[in-house]
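note to self: dont lose this again. the chain is below, predicted strucutre after it. 173 aa total, dont forget to put it in the shared folder this time
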Amino acid sequence: MNETWVTVTGNVATDVTWRRGATGSVANFFLMSNERKFDGQSGAWRDGDRLGIRVTCWRGLAENVRMSVTKGDPVVVHGRLYTSEYEQEGVRRTSTQIEAKSVGLDLRKVCARVVIIQESGPDDGRGPVDVSDLVVVPDELTAPGFTGVDVPSGDGPLEVDDDELPGREALAS
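---
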């Protein structure tokens, strides 16, 4: 039987649950994806069909999802689509799920920084380095009178030279 691979964008609708089992770590969350359609006659956007789907992540991916993803985050999930059957109170039911191979924040909607995880073999269970208490705040950003970075107005793309941003040296070290 052929596998069905999908990529779904949406928002994390529940808290991420995580546990360590006999076969490794597993993380689960519920993903909601809402279609948006532009109605040309009214000139307004409206909601279309909705998709709610359970996402399961294993091993190293589960560890990274646990530390990186929270309820409400916009994400892109790629993985194997499958249906499982179960019985609840004597009624046969089905559940559609995605076994994720990759999960990422949707950078159309949020900005993120990369944290390199420790060197390890593929899915060896060591997981990422815990950086939850790591905060790098360059002195320039806490100096009295600092009001932020000027952002030009206009419809064109924002061009920023990374070398001119305050604190670049602190991030490189």
